[in-house]
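I hope you will forgive my troubling you with a question about protein structure. I set the record out below, with my sincere thanks for your time.
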Amino acid sequence: MKLATLPLAATALAVWGSLPVAAGTALGAALLLASLGRRAWTAAPGARGLAVALALIVALHAWQDSWGAGLAAALRVLTLVVLGYLLTATTRFEDLLGIAEALCAPFRLFGLRPDRLALGLGLMLRFVESFFAQWQRLDEAHRVRAGRSGGLKLLAPLALHVMRTAERVGDALTTRLGD
């Protein structure tokens, strides 16, 4: 039910996403997030990057003399990010994989294996957090050495880390799954 709510909420926000509606849904999402209590604070490290992205959305719209539309767009994005976080924070990973496998079942008609597609989606969800943590570690190490954030200079080392991790995981899956 929670997974079905997310695309419905995204569609509704796209259709009826005026500033008052976007503000109301963002407030509702914030209240749902607050209902998690202390668990909600585990998302705090990612909030800085999200805040920058939201500020850029508002700034771009303000530059085009439509700050209200920019604020509404930023609030819609915020709402969907929070709802996505709530989904992953309150749903067991195995349950998400089961749902993804059921949703991928029609691809069987094209010769694809739904279990493998679901596993790929699950791995992607799992590793996003891991790669973000790696980005933070690289940035902290750069700050210690250079006294400032590494910014885009960290993309190459992060890409190398991602490729090494993908290769290790791929080798492990090949060994375990047998093909």
User: Anything to note?
Assistant: The radius of gyration is 19 Å. The chain has seven helices and no strands. Residues 50 and 78 are 8 Å apart (CA to CA). The chain has two domains: 2-91, 112-177.
